[in-house]
């Protein structure tokens, strides 16, 4: 059994020391590690967004209802609940959706 998995490439190892040694190979291409879980990122901004998930930070707030989000685009999607905007339309049936992923799954 190899319970210790690399957070970058998902290779598995028998012990944490071997895993740590392996993870160092990723440092040149992913120089921004998460201080909490060790996952490494190619860009500081991506790592910062990832850190919010650990810290529970949700800096983007809805002015209508107070719901908070970790990402700006999630707030933008949420605001359509209040505005009624449905910008994604099915070309086959004319059905309209607030989120692109709902149109795709439709």
List descriptors.
two-stranded antiparallel ribbon; Double Stranded RNA Binding Domain; 15% strand; zinc ion binding; elongated; zinc; alpha+beta; 106 residues; single chain
Task: Describe the protein in words.
- The chain is α+β, with helices and mostly antiparallel strands.
- It has two domains: 4-55, Double Stranded RNA Binding Domain (2-Layer Sandwich); 60-105, Double Stranded RNA Binding Domain.
- Helices cover 36% and strands 15% of the residues.
- The chain has helices at 16-23, 44-55, 72-83, 100-105, and strands at 4-5, 12-13, 32-33, 40-41, 60-61, 68-69, 88-89, 96-97.
- A two-stranded antiparallel sheet has the order 1-2. A two-stranded antiparallel ribbon has the order 3-4.
- A hairpin with a 6-residue loop joins strand 3 and strand 4 (40-41).
- The longest helix has 12 residues, at 44-55.
- It is elongated and about 55 Å long.
- The mean pLDDT is 89.
- Keywords: Developmental protein, Metal-binding, Nucleus, Repeat, Transcription, Transcription regulation, Zinc, Zinc-finger.
- It is found in: Nucleus.
- Residues 4-31, 32-59, 60-87, 88-106 form the C2H2-type domain.
